[in-house]
Amino acid sequence: MLDAIVANAPVYLLIAGRCFALVMTLPLFSLRTVPRIAKVAFAGYLAYLMIPHVDFSSYAPYLTDGAFSLHFVLLLAGEVLLGIITGFYVTIIFAAFSTAGQFFAFQMGFSASEVYDALSQVENPLMGQFFNLIAMLMFLQNHWAQRVFSQALASSFASVSAFSVVAGDGRIAAFLLGGLSKLFVDAFVIALPIMGTLLLINVAMGMLSKASPMMNMMSEGFPTMILVAFFIIMALLPNICEFFLHSFESAFMQLERLFVAVASAGRGT
User: Fold this and answer.
1) Which residues, in sequence order, are CB contacts of 208 under 8 Å at separation 6+?
2) Which residues does the chain have with pLDDT short of 70?
3) CB within 8 A of 179, min separation 6: which ones?
4) For FRET with 107, which of 20, 65, 120, 226 sits at 20 to 30 Å CA-CA?
5) Is residue 34 classed as helix, strand or coil in its secondary structure?
6) Distance between CA atoms of 173 and 65, rounded to whole angstroms?
7) What H or E segment, with its residue span, contains residue 116?
């Protein structure tokens, strides 16, 4: 193993740069509780497994003057950028599920119950963290993590390089902005049934409080909305999980299309 790494040291460092950037930006793997030495070791092992499947022949003219020349540093920065883009887009997918919980947490009365979310490493409402944990469970149970580190990573090395990013003509920036807009669309689709039901409950409570002010509907409204919201979540949980899987599949298909478009642009130039 060490002999293969030393014999291909410049190429190995380029591969390890992309793998390490991916590990550092992916949800769950980028947690502060995960030791950094474990992340470095995992990225190094991934890079070693990727060496036989990577064709960096386009980089060969820039590696002849020494492994640590300015050209090599720029190529390494491009590889790190590709890993960050991939991991950041997967993070956007999980942010959609967390945002869905934030949409109706205020209506349930849980807006003040914010806790530290270890996955996104930010203060997150309780329902947002609940959806985020379900999404992570579906992500691991359906082997999407293995697909990211095997199929997606290998195909990215086979299709796109640092030169392709330069020749992308803004495709990557437009792709990330489109991912942010899709984040809010997916979050709204997930939260819409609960938000609509809670809105009807609020309207009914308002009408009852006007009809009979002595009923004190304010004290009864929040427990009712919490119970109804949890009942809707339990009833829609199979459909929500299916939507999570569909979101993962469509997101990775869009990421694959981006790599194909950027690679074709790089070959065209």
Assistant:
1) 215, 217
2) 1-8, 56-60, 62-68, 111-125, 164-170, 213-219, 262-269
3) 89, 92, 251, 254
4) 120
5) coil
6) 32
7) strand 114-117
